[in-house]
Amino acid sequence: MGLFHNKERYKGYNIYSMKKYIDKKRLLFGLVVGLMVLITLILIIYYTVDTSVRLKRIKQYEEQIIAHKQDIIELEQKVEKERKIPQLTDAGRENVKNIYQSETKRAFLTFDDGPSTNTDAILDILNQNNIKATFFVLGTQVKVMPETVQRIYNEGHYIANHGYSHIYPSIYASPEQVLNEFNLCNQLVADTLGVAEYNSHLFRFPGGTIGGKYEKVKKQAIQLLEENNIAYVDWNALTGDSEKSNPTEEYLMNNLVKTTSNKNSVVVLMHDAQAKKVTVDVLQRVIDYLKQQGYSFDNFYSVIK
Fold it and tell me: What is the pLDDT of residue 19?
């Protein structure tokens, strides 16, 4: 009965027409599959190309970002370099002349006669306290310790000028010789730093500007220095580390207390010469005392502008 029923179902069909029907379905199926494969291939090609383009753009963006970062670094380096090259403006000259006047309490730590074997220890202490100081260097010592000069500069301290020789009869032979000593030292500093345009514009007379048998020459030299865009500064406070061959820490602290009393703006004279190990030993006490008295610390980068 089942077989008869199946025959009745396909009554009117012949083998040829059925085969034709099946071939059409197969053809339609093949077309659908082929279309799907084609669409898939198109999508694969599209996304492959799109991904390639995107990756190329990403790479370009990365290169642009790297180039931009490099530009920023170079600009920052240029700004930092320019910041470290003092420019003596009219405002700077007035600042130097009025260095001992201030409404707020400020202290300029200054070190003469270096660099020496003590300078690195002084720099370590200054760095530990986040203090920038001013170093009045000697040309003869710059020649001996160029790496230390570079460290002073790189760590943001101000390199000022104390002349070349520190030999009084030589320095004060004439006003012109004072200027020559400045220029000799200044050139050595510039060469050592590799900064051709460096000029501190700031001189400290060995022995100071007041008194002594060379006072007349010093006065004439002051005018000559000013004509050459060079300011000068002495000090109004000190530890007295150069007054004795072996001063004690207490002696230095007593001098500091006496000479800073009732002063808002203090330029503190110290030395980082070879024989001044006591300056290293007492420096932290000097800093602590000045902090306790309410002083903030500064160097001549904020003065020479």
Answer: 64
Residues 6+ apart with CB under 8 A from 67: none
Q: Which two tokens stand for residue 155?
A: 């760590």
Buried b (16+ CB within 10 A) or exposed e, 176-187: ebbbbbbbbbbb
Q: Please, which residues have CB within 8 angstroms of residue 229's CB and are 6 or more apart in sequence?
A: 88, 201
pTM: 0.76
Query: What is the tens place of the pLDDT at every residue in 137-163?
Result: 999 999 999 999 999 999 999 999 999
Containing 53, the helix (H) or strand (E) segment is helix 15-83
- Number of residues that make up the chain: 305
CB 179 within 8 A of CB 224: yes
- Report the C-alpha gap between 144 and 141 in whole angstroms: 5
Other C-beta atoms lying within 10 Å of the C-beta of residue 243: 11
Per DSSP, the residues of 93-122 read: HHHHHTTT--SS-EEEEEEES---TTHHHH
| Residue in 197, 196, 200 with CA at minimum distance from that of residue 182 | 200
Q: Are 163 and 182 in contact (CB under 8 A)?
A: yes
Query: Residue 276 carries which side chain, given as an amino acid letter?
Result: K
The DSSP call for residue 243 is S
Nearest in space to 74 (alpha carbons), one of 86, 82, 85, 62: 82
* DSSP 8-class letter at 183: H
Q: What is the pLDDT of residues 87-123, one digit of tens each?
A: 999 999 999 999 999 999 999 999 999 999 999 999 9
